[in-house]
Amino acid sequence: MNEINSKSDKYLIKAIETFKRQIVVISDDYRILASRIKPDHTSMEDSELKGKTCHLAMFNRKNPCFNCPVARVKQTNRPSMNLIHIDEDSGDSSCLYAYPIKGPNGEKNAIVVLDFFLPSLDNFDEKRCASNAFLRNLLNSAVDGVIAADMTGQIIIFNETATEISGYSRKEALGSLNIRDIYPDDDARVIMKKMRSDEYGKKGIIKSYRQTVVRKDGTTTPILLNASTVYENDREIATIGVFHDLKETMRMEAELEKTQTQLLQSEKMSSLGKLAAGVAHQLNNPLGSITLFSQLMLEDYELNEDAKKDLLRIKSDAERCTSIVKELLEFARQTKRGVKPHNLNKIIARTLFLLRNQALFHNIEIIEDYEEKLPDIPADVQQLNHVFMNIILNAADAMEGKGRLEIATRLEKEHKKALVKISDSGPGIPEKTLPNIFEPFFTTKEQGKGTGLGLSMAYGIIEDHGGSITANNQDKGGAVFTIELPLKQ
Ligand SMILES: Nc1ncnc2c1ncn2[C@@H]1O[C@H](COP(=O)(O)OP(=O)(O)O)[C@@H](O)[C@H]1O
Ligand SMILES: [Mg+2]
To answer: Does a structural domain hold residue 128?
Structure first.
């Protein structure tokens, strides 16, 4: 029995010997209780070392080493390990391992510290690499740009979306780009300052902050920034920002605003239209009486020339009022509609046929450019005649009877629309009045010449057809009216 014991002790001692590592047993305050230290670490004999602090004896340091695991052992009373160094070539790591023990006679806790080599952990490393790759992949697949930088501004993380937003490649960003370069002016500093205050979320964070990013080509992109500071023991060591591209959002906002304006415009038109129609109906009968009775007076009485002239004037003015009322009713679309498939080219050609021989058009060159493959579209011919007539007459008015009138039709297959463009070589529409021209009664023409109802009527008719009408000025001068009509009802 004894023999086996002493044999096993020998094995044990042999095993510890072969383990050729340094072992130090220390007290709570780092004083050496027992040790086996390699001679190149100290000139003292093991016996001389007793009672000295290990950091002083081995490294000539006044305080415990920063990478010593003993502090943690003291805190948790559990074993702890620190990685000291990894050999790049072999992948071997050198570590410090510490664990608590009770003294041989039941004394207060002592701590054992030993150093050892960990041969390269191939499999473990593979797993670590895989998990790193997964994290990288995660960052790269993020919909938003993710950029992290250290406190000097050097970039340490730059994901795929960040390259799209900024125009820099990852290599450029990680190699030579400074975070300050992607913000205009002094903005990086401003952001840092805001992050340190609690103005945008709590301290160390900036949330939903609208910012501009300067791309590699010098253009700018609007972004929404969420960023935070990375701390290590209360010390700022890095910043990480998530960049959300705002281009698409802003485009949608603009679109929404445009739609709202259009909605407001059509709302205004329709209420004015109803009002106008009501008034027109009430005026119709008295105007009819004025015309009728002045006619009767002319026929039934022997009047002197002056009186006749006055009556004729009354009659013709009443007739003019009647035609304005008619236009008003038309504008309010109180007349009957008949929608059937029609060829848009033919409708326009017919309108032009009527107008071409009028004196106003003698010095106007008319250029027709029709899309031949235009299918029939659902249309109320009479109403569309009105629309084109009005726009073409307006153009002739604007050109004062001299210039070039271009009419083109096109097929927009993709959007299932027919397109009509009517442009002139007149002075164009002043930018200031451009938003108003479709309003009822808006006219720049002198009294008696314009009612200001033509375009508002056109607007209503095209809207009724499910289409749209817009006016613009051409770069080369002159106005252009664009009408879009759906191919199907
Ligand atoms: N082709 C054009 N070039 C310049 N201004 C135009 C043109 N078409 C319309 N306008 C402007 O729009 C206004 C409104 O037109 P409209 O509603 O047809 O009423 P009206 O012709 O009776 O004035 C016109 O008075 C004019 O100022
Ligand atoms: Mg007009």
So the answer is: no
Helix (H, G, I), strand (E, B) or coil at 248: helix
Q: State the chain's mean pLDDT as an integer.
A: 86
Q: What is the mean pLDDT of residues 472-485?
A: 96
Residue 195 in contact with residue 204, Cβ under 8 Å? Answer: yes
Res 268 pLDDT > 70? no
CATH number at residue 64: 3.30.450.20
Q: Are strands 363-369 and 402-412 parallel, antiparallel or unpaired?
A: parallel
Residues 277 and 367 in one domain: no
Q: Among 399, 406, 437, name the best residue to mutate to test ligand 1's pocket (greatest count of ligand atoms within 8 A of Cβ).
A: 437
Residue 125 confidence class, pLDDT cut points 50, 70, 90: low
Return left, alpha or beta for 106; rule: phi > 0 is left, psi -120 to 50 is alpha, else beta. Answer: left
Please give the DSSP secondary-structure letter assigned to residue 357. T
Q: Choose which residue among 323, 392, 394, 482 to substitute to test ligand 1 binding: the one with the highest number of ligand atoms within 8 A of its C-beta.
A: 394
Q: Is the pLDDT at 1 greater than 60, yes or no?
A: no
Instruction: Specify the ligand 1 atom closest to the Cα of 424.
Output: 1
pLDDT higher than 70, residue 474 = yes
Report which ligand 1 atom has the smallest distance to the Cα of 456.
17
| Residue identifier of the C-alpha nearest atom 9 of ligand 1 | 394
Is the distance from CB of 349 to CB of 371 less than 8 angstroms?
no
Average pLDDT over residues 403-409: 97
Q: What is the value of pTM for the model shown?
A: 0.45
- Judge if 345 and 328 occupy the same domain: no
**How far is Cα of residue 21 from the mean position of the Cα atoms in its chain?**
61
Q: What is the pLDDT of residue 378?
A: 94
Enter the DSSP assignment of 181. G
Q: How many domains does the chain have?
A: 4
311 vs 313: CA distance, rounded Å: 5
Which amino acid type is present at position 394?
N
